[in-house]
Design a protein that fits this description.
Structural class: alpha/beta
Helix content: 40-55%
Largest sheet: 7 strands, mixed
Strand order of the largest sheet: 3-2-1-4-5-7-6
Distance between the termini: 27 Å
Radius of gyration: 27 Å
Number of helices: 17
Bound molecules: S-adenosylmethionine
Number of strands: 11
Amino acid sequence: MTEKIRPFVKWAGGKGSLIPQLNKFYPYDLKNRVIGRYIEPFVGGGAVLIDILQKYNIKEAFAFDINKDLINSYNVIKNNVDELITILKEIETQYLKLEKEGRKKYFYIVREKYNNYTIEENETKIQRAAQFVFLNRTCFNGLYRVNKSGKFNVPIGSYKNPTICDEQNLKNLSKLIQNVQFECGDYKNSIKYVTKNTFVYFDPPYRPLNITSGFTSYTKEDFNDDDQKELAKLYKMLDGRNAKLMLSNSNPKNINKEDNFFDNLYKGFNINEIYANRMINSKADGRGKISEIVVTNYNNTYSKGMENEMERIKKFEDGSFLEYDDGRFDKWCVYYTDSNGNRKAPKDTDYFEDLYNFSKKYGNERIYSDYVRIYNKTNKYIEEETISYIEQIAKVYELLDRMEIEKIFMILYMGMIEEENKERTKLGKRIKRLGVHALLVENRPIKESATFMTGKKWQLLGKLCKERGF
Ligand SMILES: C[S@@+](CC[C@H](N)C(=O)[O-])C[C@H]1O[C@@H](n2cnc3c(N)ncnc32)[C@H](O)[C@@H]1O
């Protein structure tokens, strides 16, 4: 999926424009693929969720919001996107045909309908989602806001040619969120899903910088200072579970340098600043870019010397380790750092020789069948269970060879995951097996086996795999 996917709604506090800055604070373990679970307890428009799902290897994600209609719409996009598109297209055609007055009438009829029914009573959840999208796309400023009694109260906007049905984006989004579980409810419900290798991003309603600028009415329930304090308590509790946590909020210091509200709440964590495009006009500071805070419970940049603090896919007894990082051609590349700190991306030719030597010592069949056991367990995701399995397999070899054999199997395992994750992969992990098969079953020379697939079209490679029974 190369097309950039966008949120399907415009949302107050939406993080779309801040993504490049927030990216820098994502935990290194996301890039390193150690993290497979993502949770967003205040998902809103989902700009960060979408960014993360597009960039990283997230096996499962959980998104919460207290806004029922928002969550309903996500679920409809996830499960019934074609029906939603049909309804939205119809609405779009009807609406765009109308002149100003006609559009106004149309908008208020839909708003009235939307406000007179609750989601449970609405004809169908799909229609309700269509109304939700329509109102968001045509209302003033494209915002969602309700009054104290929970009624959507934004007036009509003045867009000349609003896109009501962004068909391709909805389809792409639908595909992207298939592994996401959306739940309507309080953010606290999310804690049951937080485990060690989880990344949680909290984007609660901003603490208002001053009483009048407060936009806290996404739902009829407000989010006040006591709620911010509760949230900080929960953050501390989850820190104890070793999850990676990131939280953003407004920065009270934009208005009052002495306001230490968040410094007190998040003492002991990293409080960073990012800059929004909005300007602030306060008497004390004149005009300037408004800053927001990003609180993390981990060191956010990778630098040399921090290696030991980082979680690696695999660390070996001699201090060497394996990890993933961006490569020259794609986002997936296996890196090996030896015990002296030299880092490189191992090529097949580098370790096929070792593989060959071990096969001379232990027999081709044994090495190949151990490899196939690992192959059978390999999928798109890094699984701790498989990593321990490889450790167990290596333990059966002679003491002096164990670590080297484990390294080779781990490099092969990680290489297969890499293949499974390539954007346009047709063969996935099978491509690696072709080389290993050439060396250990067909007894081809080392170099020829290591470069077995080079220059061959995937159709041919697919055929060769089939002939070999995989
Ligand atoms: C700042 S917005 C999130 C914006 C989002 N990051 C984006 O890019 O669009 C905060 C969200 O929290 C939701 N919310 C408010 N109180 C909540 C609560 N107690 N539990 C869960 N969600 C809540 C609101 O409905 C709103 O969608």
